[in-house]
Amino acid sequence: MIRIGIILGSTRPGRNGEAVARWVHEHAVKRGDAHYELVDLKDFDLPHLDEPLAAATGVYEHPHTRTWSDTIDGFDGFVFVTPEYNHSISGALKTAIDFLFAEWHDKAAGVVGYGVSGGVRAAEHLRQVLGQVRVADVQAGVELLMHADFEGFTTFKPAAHQEDMLGRLLDQVVSWSTALRPLRR
Ligand SMILES: Cc1cc2nc3c(=O)[nH]c(=O)nc-3n(C[C@H](O)[C@H](O)[C@H](O)COP(=O)(O)O)c2cc1C
């Protein structure tokens, strides 16, 4: 069965991202078409990039890098749950991507963004970064608006259509992750 990691890209206390990632995971597991797992960056406690050699070498000095590497290596595809901070993704998410290289290759990903403007600018930045680490980003996306999908900007209550958008995104992530399998062997 295809394994999809749902990567929660915000780490700050009181983050809205946790409710969003749980919503994605809850809907995903009901589908029964893949193994879906929540990957919370907070649990990995990665520092600023502290590996002496570039990730492209695959040579890692630190245990935290090896743990992160083993985790990402085990997935066939991803759903990135990303906040928008100053028109981009969080520093924590960018660092987590930068720590690795081959572990990302030839996998598919969808982006669930959220923010005042639906996280669209962060999502577009993320797509650029993903291209460099050879992740194929799917067309469908989820754009959650602070004023429409979060009551009082803090309680996550997604509008009904967001579930359909998420379904489309997951369809595409599963089909592309499956199609790219021969390249990963
Ligand atoms: C440092 C910071 C910068 C932000 N910049 C933007 C922004 O440029 N555009 C936007 O739409 N929302 C922006 N926001 C609002 C966030 O998208 C919103 O607060 C969201 O809940 C952040 O995700 P989190 O709660 O999981 O940390 C910003 C929030 C923070 C904390």
From TrEMBL:
Residues 3-141 form the NADPH-dependent FMN reductase-like domain. Pfam families: FMN_red (PF03358). InterPro entries: Flavoprotein-like_sf, FMN_Rdtase-like_dom, NAD(P)H-dep_reductase. One of its GO terms (cellular component) is cytosol. GO terms for molecular function: FMN binding; oxidoreductase activity. PANTHER family: CHROMATE REDUCTASE, NAD(P)H-DEPENDENT FMN REDUCTASE LOT6. This is NAD(P)H-dependent oxidoreductase.
